[in-house]
Every structure is written in C-alpha cells, then in structure tokens.
Write a structure and sequence with these properties.
Layout: E1 3-6, H1 12-23, E2 27-32, E3 44-47, H2 53-57, H3 59-66, E4 72-75, H4 90-118, E5 121-125, H5 138-158, E6 164-170, H6 177-180, H7 194-210, H8 215-226, E7 233-236, H9 240-262
Helix pairs in contact: 1-8, 3-4, 4-5
Length: 265
Amino acid sequence: MPSALITGTSSGLGHDVAQRLHDLGWDVLGTVLDRADEDRVPWSTVVVDVTDDDAVSALGLVVQERLGRLDALVNNAGIAMAGPWEEITPAELRRSLGVNLVGAMAVTRECLPALRAAQGVIVSISSVSGQAGDPLMGPYNASKFGLEGASEALRLELKQFGVRVHLVEPGPFRTPISAASPQAAAKDPDGVYAEQWTVIDSWLSWHAESSADPARCVDAIVGAVLRPDAPFRIPVGEGISDVVRKHAAGLVRQADAADAWLRTL
C-alpha cells in the first residue's frame, strides 16, 4: 500500500487531497493543528504546527512508526496573510514565511531519507501568487515566490535519487484559507491604503463564497502525486496559465529593457 504525508488536512485542499488518496487505497498521515480534528477524518493524523521546530523534527520518526515508508509528501499547510508593507509587522511577516516557506522546507527535510528510499514524490502547493505579485499580498507573494525558488533547487538536488518534485500553482478556489487567514493587525481602513483594502476585502469575500469549486485543483495535486509525467510547475484554475504566460512575457520585456538601458551607461 503506498503512503503519503500531507500537511494541513483539517480543511480545504489538504483535507480533500487526503480524502482522495485515502479513497484510492493510500495509507495517509495528515497533520492537523487541533486534536479535535483527529476524530473527524478516516485517515491517521498527527498534531503538528509546521512552525514548531520540535514537532517537525519528530515527524521523521512518526512517519517511520505510522507508515513504515513514504511514497509522497504534499506540502499543503499555508496561510494567506494580507497587508501592505507599511502596515505589516516583522512578526507578521515571519509568521507568513514560517508557515508557507520555512515550514514546508523543514517538513521536507525531515522526510527526505524516507522519500529517497522509496524514490517518492514531493508536491508543494504554491500559488499563482508565487509567479506574479499582487497589491497588499506582499507577505503571501514573498512566501510563495520563495517556495518556488527553493523547489527549483530541491528538484535539481533530488534528481539523482529518482525523487520527483512538483509545484501546483492554484488560482482562486473555494477553500477556507481566505476567511481563516490573518490580516495586518495595523490595518487602517481609513488610511492611505484604504482603497486597496476595500478591493482586497471584496476579493477575499468572493474567494470564500463564490470562487471555483476546488475539485479541479485536487485533481491536479493528486495527479502530480500519481503520474510521473506531470510537469514541474502546474498552474491550475480558469485563466491561470495565461496569467503565468503574461508575467513571463513581462520578464522578457524587462530583460530587454535592462539590456538597452545598460548600453547607455
């Protein structure tokens, strides 16, 4: 029976991916934040905050004891901290990076011996926000851009061992992340960023209530786990691949402009 560790399985994409793999006959171990969540799901769970170094350090042993081997790791745990640079505190920024980037890297580190032994697969849930920046989403952009770069390096490091690495880059899908994630404590609805806050608040409400059903994104994540022919980056969602293409074309134009400008120095 193949086995998987999935972080953040209390709700949202993590829950749905765990359910899908469990239904396919996988032995699933999911991380949760609250012991109350342990009894609500049919797969095995462990209470882990991915920013807790001691808890993460113990994961390798937990995986060995509960699963025996590890065929797949899905780095799903995440938050979507919102706020402009001017209103985000260093502590808030560290929390965003700690969950979305450092936490994913730390969990992966603990699992690598087992994944190497099984020639397994690592699927990290990034975002279209890991490809293109958005106003007032700098902390989230920073964490997902970082995850993208770190995963590029990891892919090269693990190629020799037969371990696959993939990034799934969702657009907006209807999950609890937008409603559950924090906003800057210093948010000033009447300040200089008031207009942008209005846009963000409206978008977050739409995201929570009316964005696309997450089933297509779950398909992509599970597909990346199961299929060796999956590409490294997988943008998923209506129009999301076009956003990536447009941003990539912009980078080319910026490089061309930089070359022309440098010739004038």
